[in-house]
Amino acid sequence: MTKTTTGSSRLTVILSWIIALACFVGGALFIWMMPSPDQGAIDLQAKKQKSPKSVSEKIKKEQSQRALPANYSEQLVKQSEILVKKNLESQLGKFQEMSRKMRKRKDELLTKVETRQLPRSAPADANDTSKARNIPQAGNLRVNPSVEDMYVLLREYEAEIQQNHLAVNAARQALSRGLSFPEVYNSLKAGSSRMPSFDELIRMQAKGGEWGTSDGSNASAGLSIKSTADLNNYRGLLGQATRQAGLAQSRLENLFGVVKQVGKPGGGAGEGNDQPGGSEGGGNGDGSGNGGMGEAAQGNGNKRPMNHYAGSRLNQAMVKAQALPGRRFSKNAERKGWLYINTWYMIGPWDSYGREDFSIVHPPEISVDFDAVYTDGQVGTGIMETDSDPIKVIGEEVHLDGTLRWKFMQSESMHNTVPVTTGNSTYYAYTELYFDEATTMLVAIGTDDSGRVWINGKDVWRDYGTSWYNIDEHIAPFEFRQGWNRVLVRLENGGGGACGFSFLIIPQD
Question: In the prediction, which pLDDT does 276 show?
């Protein structure tokens, strides 16, 4: 009995030690193989960051390649072209008028050359102006023109105006210096700045790739539009066409030495383009803003000096302390005072090429479409701001690949900053304001640097040149209609500093 108990105890002790040793070895191996807390956190964070991004990119790729039914594709192409054609038609009218003026100027000077008295030593053909007289004139627009037809005709007018301007310069030199007209004319060369051909625009938009054509396509040049990616590319092509036409208009106006006076909206020599509209979710506008402030062209029409504001002033400290955010207004509301608009859809940056005269028209001025994806934005680096400070640029540096989409942004203050801050850039901001009945409101607008504002498609304000941000750069009454009212802001950033704007309203009484 004693032996049995002793043997059993020894066996129990041995088994206990074996189990304990196995647990110790297993625990040691587990601890040794387990990753460090820091590494585990990094891996987990990487998974959290990578997974949503990869899913988002996959969704975007699938959406961009989504096939479009033929009938629906034709309808979308037609809708995308409506306001583009209207804009190019307006440009054609301006080009035709400039062509008539330059041709008249040329004919008057050539007549003086032909009738001047020459010394006997002058060449026999010193007054021969036949070559300058026979400069080809641009053709006429055919019925139901395509965007390509209108663009090609604009290029023809551009070439005609430039050639006639060359003849004008030659005639002036020949008359003032007593030279042979043919010799002077043949020695001069037209400027190299020209609108690229429509085929070149297509190659630029396709970024060197192939863009197929289709016999049944209603798009310009017969371009094939079979997916949402094709449609977005085509919209980018239309935007490039209007932008090149605007740049050409500025270059041609400089040939006339035009200096337009800055005045209040509705006056001056400038004319607004067909103005945008739309509603949340996309749409086309029906307004036009043909009045508007004229451009103050100086030198090459690009740069302007710092503007020193001298208009009405608000007590900015009091306004900032008492103003509240809001997009809906009711006359019966208990709270009275300034409202600032801090919720916007924004897009940009596009390259302004150093211009501040609004001559380069971008897609949002033609149609506000929140589903559109543009591929002609700025390429390089910028600062994605994390603060709405009107002076400081605070945020991380990001890479820009030229792709632009509308982005919903809400500011914590009355100053609204842009999605990504860069220099020589153009941005747009869109929102809608609701009024329970038609109301006249005072509107206070401030921009850094220059800006332009449309309300319900009407061109109500333009600010030229570089300026410091003030909430009261422009104060004027505006009649808002009952229901929703569309507001579009164009913002220019001339330098690499902060860029932003504010938009405040208050009942006029």
Answer: 41
In the prediction, which pLDDT does 351 show? Answer: 87
Give residues with Cβ within 8 angstroms of 241, minimum separation 6: 84, 88, 147, 151, 198, 201
In 3D space, the residue among 253, 494, 255, 241 whose CA is nearest the CA of residue 355 turns out to be 494
What is the per-residue pLDDT for 465?
62
Q: Are residues 233 and 331 both part of a single domain?
A: no
Name the pTM for this structure. Answer: 0.58
Task: Compute the distance between CA of residue 353 and CA of residue 494 in angstroms, rounded to an integer.
Answer: 9
Q: Are residues 88 and 234 in the same domain?
A: yes
Which ranges of the chain have pLDDT less than 50?
A: 1-4, 37-53, 55, 59, 259-306, 308-311
In a domain, 27, yes or no: no
Rounded CA-CA distance 462/200 in Å is 33
DSSP 8-state class, residue 220: G
Residue 51 domain-assigned (yes or no): no
Spatial contact of 179 and 118, defined as CB atoms under 8 Å apart: no
241-244 LR contacts (CB < 8 Å, sep 24+): 241/84, 241/88, 241/147, 241/151, 241/198, 241/201, 242/84, 242/87, 242/88, 242/91, 242/361, 242/366, 243/360, 243/361, 243/362, 243/376, 244/151, 244/195, 244/196, 244/201
Amino acid identity, position 79: Q
249 & 320 share domain: no
Establish if 229 belongs to a structural domain: yes
Range of the domain at 335: 316-507
| Residue 381 in domain | yes
Shared domain for 250 and 340, answered yes or no, is: no
**CATH code: domain of residue 447:** 2.60.120
Domain stop point among 220, 255, 290? 255
Phi, psi for 84 (deg, rounded to 5)? -65, -45
Tokens of 173: 């030199």
Per the structure, how many domains does the chain have? 2
What is the rounded distance in angstroms from the CA atom of residue 421 to the CA atom of residue 357?
A: 20
- Tell which of 230, 255, 280 closes a domain: 255
The single residue listed with the structure tokens 């590319």 is 233
Which residue in 293, 454, 449 sits closest to 368, CA to CA?
454
| pLDDT on residue 435 | 92
Burial classification of residue 336, based on how many CB atoms lie within 10 Å of its CB (0-12 exposed, 13-18 middle, 19 or more buried): exposed
